[in-house]
Design goal:
Elements (H helix, E strand, L loop, with lengths): L9 H6 L10 E4 L6 E5 L5 E9 L8 E10 L4 H16 L4 H18 L3 H12 L6 H19 L9 H8 L7 H20 L22 H4 L13 H8 L5 H12 L3 H5 L6 E2 L4 E4 L10 E4 L2 H9 L20 H17 L6 E2 L4 E2 L4 H12 L5 H7 L7 H6 L5 H15 L4
Antiparallel strand pairs: 1-2, 2-3, 3-4, 5-6, 6-7, 8-9
Family: Belongs to the 'phage' integrase family.
Protein name: Integrase
GO molecular function: DNA binding
């Protein structure tokens, strides 16, 4: 242990400085605590140092340590001695102050990492996973639902503090009124909390999990979810509607006509590109990333759909078949606007317009899939599996799905040809 130097006074310490020709930095023992000294640098700065030794590994020499206690005169002689005595007390207890500080810093860093909030975690998760998603809309959907429903209750809560009451506070207000949205919000919260657990930001069970947890506290979504059907035109009026539609010259009208003739979802048609369409083979191949089921879907094009496409202009600067007037993908609202104008014109002329008689609402583009489905079931003689394949519906029977390999394309060609003929005002 270093010898105890003469105990200097405040005045003596103040006068300490380099002597002429003395090599810097230089340290002056100040006494009072073994190993405590004042170091003077070449720039004239002064700071406190405490030197001590700790045992090394078995069979090795002791390790020499130096600990800075702050600059002088900000840290006074009295305060420096107090700090030095605290360190000496730690050494007496077998604690190495340097290693102790390292452990404290490490613990603090770990605590800070674990203190991120749910909103921060959601942002990190979305940034990490968005490259896997089908399109930019997927990210927007995640951000919008979490911002609207989860963030007001969870946004500023630390991940490590989130528990079941927090999750229920988000879900219970919307569980029976916005069941589908609430289900998605729950799934997204569960995924983010799983991600946080894997990243060591939290520990324990996931409070947003459904099976064996929330299913004991919330009603099953299938029991409370209100059934919502898109307003649809009765199939008996399809030909009259088509005659009226073909009088419209807007590109949105052609997009709607294409949706009707193919029984496709409006988004699949609005995002269609010329590269997906083979007019010679009369087939439109929708890639998996744009299909709801995530599987490539071949759509047989009947003669009416082929002629519609042949008559369309090929616009420069875009591969889209039905681009928006200002570029980019046409909105679903554009097709709804076509229907609304047609409806208003009918009503103005004294008619009833284009209404769903069951819902008493104006029909929608998506509703034509129901129109097609009703026609196929009640008028055509094609089996159910052919119709379901035409609508690109997922096979719910797992056993059947496991063995189904083909897409019934040739049969669907006949089905879609009959549908086009049924919709043709001339026939």
């Amino acid at each position: 242990m270093p010898r105890v130097a003469k105990e200097l006074t405040d005045l003596a310490v103040k006068r300490l400085g380099p002597k002429p020709g003395q090599r810097l930095p230089v340290s002056y023992p100040v006494g009072g605590v073994s190993g405590l000294s004042l170091q003077v640098t070449p720039a004239g700065g002064k700071s406190w140092l405490l030197r001590y030794t700790v045992p090394g590994p078995p069979g090795s020499k002791q390790k020499r340590r130096e600990v800075g206690l702050g600059g002088y005169p900000t840290v006074t002689l009295k305060l420096a001695r107090e700090k030095a005595r605290e360190i000496r007390d730690q050494l007496t207890q077998g604690i190495d102050p340097v290693e102790h500080r390292k452990a404290q810093r490490s613990a603090l860093a770990g605590e800070q990492a674990r203190s991120i909030t749910f909103e921060e975690a959601a942002t990190q998760y979305i940034a990490a996973k968005e490259s896997e998603w089908k399109n930019a809309k997927h990210r927007q959907q995640w951000e919008n639902t979490l911002k609207t429903y989860a963030s007001p209750k969870l946004g500023e809560v630390r991940l490590s503090d989130i528990d079941t009451p927090h999750i229920l506070a988000v879900l219970e207000p919307i569980w029976t009124t916005k069941t589908e949205t609430a289900t998605r919000v729950r799934q997204r919260m569960e995924v983010i909390l799983d991600w946080a657990t894997a990243r060591k930001y939290r520990e324990g069970e996931n409070p947003a999990r459904w099976k064996g947890h929330l299913d004991t506290m919330l009603a099953k979504p299938t029991k409370v979810k209100p059934k919502k059907n898109h307003p649809a035109l009765p199939y008996g009026k399809a030909a009259d509607f088509m005659a009226d539609l073909r009088k419209r010259e807007a590109l949105a009208a052609r997009a709607l006509e294409f949706v009707i003739l193919t029984a496709a979802r409006s988004g699949e048609a609005r995002e269609a590109t010329w590269a997906e369409i083979d007019l010679e083979e009369k087939v439109w191949t929708v890639p998996a990333e744009r299909m709801k089921a995530g599987k490539e879907h071949r759509v047989p094009l009947n003669d009416a759909a082929v002629q519609l496409l042949r008559d369309l202009p090929r616009l420069k600067g875009t591969e889209l078949v039905f681009p928006a007037p200002r570029g980019g993908v046409m909105s679903d609202q554009a097709m709804k606007a076509v229907i609304k104008r047609m409806h208003d014109a009918k009503v103005k002329a004294g008619g009833k317009g284009y209404m769903d008689p069951k819902q008493d609402k104006i029909i929608t583009p998506h509703g034509f899939r129901s129109t097609f489905r009703d026609w196929a079931a009640e008028v055509s003689e094609y089996p159910n599996e052919v119709v379901e394949m035409a609508l690109a519906h997922t096979i719910k029977n797992k056993a059947e799905a496991a063995y189904r390999r083909g897409d019934l394309f040739e049969k669907r060609q006949g089905l879609m040809a009959e549908w086009a003929e049924y919709c043709d005002p001339k026939k």
